């Protein structure tokens, strides 16, 4: 910090709170920047309990004082390794990734803070881990392009939507460096497609191209395509034709005690109820 005024201290603490959250208790010494009304108002607005250590008794804030002494020793030992800021950053990296035997399970300060081990330069010496991705038969097949393969890349300038190009290099898993007629560009795999037209025409002779483009072959291909479409068409299901009789209507007669329905004759009568039902 260039200075230790209340405004500078509040700005620095606001940046720390944005990364790690607002603490419940803040323990400081009796410096003027911590005793000002602006700092007191800052703690009240954020719901922080501000505690000051007694004057001339640094043991009350022993952890902070001990770490200050550790920083001073690191600066003395690494004085010839660069500017003080670089020395402090190297020391903090080593300090924060070192396991602490006083912590449960021997975790490092960084692992206690973030819940994971932070990456260091020593991780590059370890072999890469293979992640087992879940297989799904119904998912889309992953596409890929080979170096030197001719493709069509999406163009966002001019009237052409697609421009021909050649894969020059693969960048990552889904990014490719494509060499076009004019210049190079980096495109996502979703912004490219195979240039099948160029691949087909390379293996054909000019005579074969003329034969395929003749009107006769064009009509033959169209006829075969229509024939296959008619063969694949679903035939309509045939419903058995039968004679349907109208539903007989009930004729109300108050003199009758019951009614019987004869569905075969399509009428209602009051004959003997053989295989009939009463309404």
From TrEMBL:
Could you tell me which residues belong to the region Disordered?
213-279
- Enumerate composition-biased segments (Basic residues): 216-231
For biological process, the GO terms are:
DNA integration
Say which domain of life the source belongs to.
Eukaryota
What are the Integrase catalytic domain coordinates in residue numbering?
Answer: 1-117
Q: What is this protein called?
A: Integrase catalytic domain-containing protein
Which residues constitute the signal peptide according to the record? none
Alphabetized InterPro entries for the sequence: Integrase_cat-core, Retrovirus_Pol_polyprotein, RNaseH-like_sf, RNaseH_sf
Q: What's the source species for this entry?
A: Schistosoma mattheei
Query: Which Gene3D superfamilies has this protein been placed in?
Result: Ribonuclease H-like superfamily/Ribonuclease H (3.30.420.10)
Name the Gene Ontology molecular function terms of this record.
nucleic acid binding
């Amino acid at each position: 910090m260039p200075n230790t005024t209340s405004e500078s201290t509040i700005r620095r603490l606001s940046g720390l709170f944005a990364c790690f959250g607002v603490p419940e208790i803040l323990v400081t010494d009796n410096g003027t920047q911590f005793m000002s009304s602006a700092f007191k108002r800052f703690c009240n607005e954020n719901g922080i309990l501000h505690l000051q250590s007694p004057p001339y008794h640094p043991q009350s804030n022993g952890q902070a004082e001990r770490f200050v002494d550790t920083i001073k020793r690191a600066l003395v030992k690494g004085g010839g390794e660069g500017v003080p800021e670089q020395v402090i950053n190297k020391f903090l990296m080593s300090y924060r990734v070192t396991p602490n035997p006083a912590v449960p399970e021997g975790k490092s300060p960084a692992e206690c803070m973030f819940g994971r081990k932070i990456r260091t330069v020593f991780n590059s010496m370890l072999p890469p881990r293979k992640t087992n991705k879940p297989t799904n038969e119904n998912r889309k097949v992953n596409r890929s392009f080979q170096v030197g393969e001719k493709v069509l890349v999406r163009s966002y300038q001019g009237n052409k939507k697609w421009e021909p190009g050649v894969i020059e290099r693969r960048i990552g898993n889904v990014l490719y460096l494509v060499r076009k007629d004019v210049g190079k560009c980096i495109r996502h795999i979703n912004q490219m497609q195979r240039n099948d037209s160029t691949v087909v025409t390379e293996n054909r002779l000019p005579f074969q191209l003329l034969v395929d483009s003749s009107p006769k072959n064009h009509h033959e291909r169209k006829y075969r395509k229509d024939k296959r479409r008619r063969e694949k068409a679903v035939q309509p299901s045939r419903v058995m034709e039968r004679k349907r009789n109208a539903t007989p209507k009930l004729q109300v007669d108050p003199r009758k005690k019951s009614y019987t329905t004869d569905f075969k004759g399509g009428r209602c009568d009051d004959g003997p109820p053989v295989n009939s039902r009463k309404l």
